[in-house]
Design brief:
The protein is an all-alpha fold and about 120 residues long. The protein has helices spanning about 1-20, 30-40, 45-50, 55-65, 70-90, 95-115. The protein has one domain (about 1-115).
Amino acid sequence: MKRTIYIIIGCISVVLGIIGIFVPGLPTTPFLLLSSWLFYNSSKRLHNALHRSKWLGPYLRRFQERKGVGWKTKAVSIVCMWTMISISAFVVFENWHVRLLLLGLGVIGTCSVLFIVPNAKNN
């Protein structure tokens, strides 16, 4: 049962990561890292496929080579993310449901960058 749940959440996380490539404010790497961890603990085949992927593998390899992200990079990332979220939520969209969704995704993205993505040992 746990294996199935990990695979389902991992697949959802991959989809969100792919969407994050194209949608400002939705992070890509944290979702792919989550998927990698979930697949590692549930399906070595899916884990290996994710890491060998032509389009998604480079995100994971880039992260692994640096073994974390510096605070300056995290700060720039969060500022850029919230700039795009603010423009989208308050300039582009007038619907409050869409605004709340964007703001919620921004909070998830910010928490992901701050708490899931590890800090680099050498900044």
